[in-house]
Amino acid sequence: MDIRVRPYTLDDFEALLTVQREAFPPPFPEELLWNREQIAAHVEVFPEGAMVAEVDGIIAGSATSLIVRFTGEPHTWAEVADDGYIRRSHQPDGDSLYGIDLCVRPSFRGHGVAQALYEARKNLVRSLGLKRLIAGCRIPGFHRYAGSMTAEEYVQKVVQGELKDLVLSFMVKQGLKPVQVMDDYLEDEESMNKAVLVEWLNPDDKEGKKIG
Ligand SMILES: CC(C)(COP(=O)(O)OP(=O)(O)OC[C@H]1O[C@@H](n2cnc3c(N)ncnc32)[C@H](O)[C@@H]1OP(=O)(O)O)[C@@H](O)C(=O)NCCC(=O)NCCS
């Protein structure tokens, strides 16, 4: 399988929306899927962070990021992503690459598409000399266990491999480590509106300091 990661442009909008519709089916709120103005803003504000992965020339997945000066304070997706427009939240002189979106079409999953996007994100962290890659990771499997354990316990079990989560298991496999559970991160029924802040430290950063 030939997987190629490249920057996306506004011309890719329809394909990006197809990826989002397939990757975030209901109950995920449709109004949270990308709109044309948001894609235009990503391309204008931080084009290096706007990535698609093509498989044999077909767009199979995407990943969007911005730069922040990260403090470790709990936050919401709307705050860090500026409601998806990144204009007010992108800080070119910040120290961390923050992933605000990652999605792969279901029929292309399990073939390393997201991994290729994560490699590209890690390479961007290195080339920009940033300290870390972070993301607010959904935990869509949590609603099945919420009656019997806390989100923190759920995260621990996923990290230990006792439970599998569609998104967090992927992040753990990429070497991202959970730092903290954030409440009311995003309207996300399956994750019970929670997300886990996950972190990968740039191995080239000699002062490397964990936020967690
Ligand atoms: C999470 C997601 C992006 C993963 O995409 P993907 O292309 O299937 O992932 P990859 O094929 O690159 O997986 C890379 C590795 O992680 C593993 N992995 C991926 N998903 C996994 C899962 N649910 N459970 C266990 N391992 C998983 C793969 O087995 C693979 O391991 P390997 O290197 O040993 O083969 C995809 O499931 C998705 O789009 N989910 C819905 C959208 C979403 O919620 N995005 C997250 C927003 S925070």
Automatic annotation (TrEMBL):
- PROSITE patterns, alphabetically? GNAT
The molecular function terms of the Gene Ontology recorded here are: acyltransferase activity, transferring groups other than amino-acyl groups
Top-level taxon of the source organism: Bacteria
Q: Which InterPro entries match?
A: Acyl_CoA_acyltransferase, GNAT_dom
Q: Name one Pfam family in it.
A: Acetyltransf_1
So which residues are the signal peptide here?
A: none
Domain (N-acetyltransferase) spans 3-197
Which key words are in the record?
Transferase
Instruction: Report the protein name in the record.
Output: Acetyltransferase (GNAT) family protein
Q: What is the lineage of its organism?
A: Bacteria, Bacillati, Bacillota, Bacilli, Bacillales
